[in-house]
Amino acid sequence: MKCPLTRKPALQAIDKAIALAGSETKLSRATGYSQPAINKARRKGRVSAELAIAIERALAGAVTRAELRPDLFGGERT
Q1: Other beta carbons within 10 Å of 36
Q2: pLDDT digits (tens, 9 = 90+) for 3-47
Q3: For 54-68, what is each residue's pLDDT tens digit?
Q4: C-alpha closest to that of 12 among 63, 77, 71
């Protein structure tokens, strides 16, 4: 069951990451993931833990893993 309280901020974080990168394609190149994987994450409103870390690294922390996956990384300080 999806928790609406954690899904919306995560979706906003994915949109923010795409906007900062310039496009889904640019984010995919920066993270090493395919564009369809980025698009799927956006549509589902959820990213894997690995993709969250890759996005955080690719964007130099502008979007954090905790923003993307608060259920897994919410308490961490990076």
Answers
A1: 10
A2: 544 457 889 999 999 999 999 999 999 999 999 999 999 999 999
A3: 999 999 999 999 999
A4: 63
pTM of the model: 0.85
Provide the CATH number for the domain formed by 4-69 in this structure. 1.10.260.40
Look-up of token digits 């979007």: 63
Kindly report the number of other CB atoms within 10 A of residue 16's CB atom: 16
Contact 4, 22 (CB under 8 A): no
Residue carrying structure tokens 């608060």: 70
Tokens (6 digits) for 76? 């961490």
Burial, 42: exposed, middle or buried (Cβ in 10 Å; 0-12, 13-18, 19+)?
middle
- From CA 49, how far away is CA 59, in angstroms rounded? 16
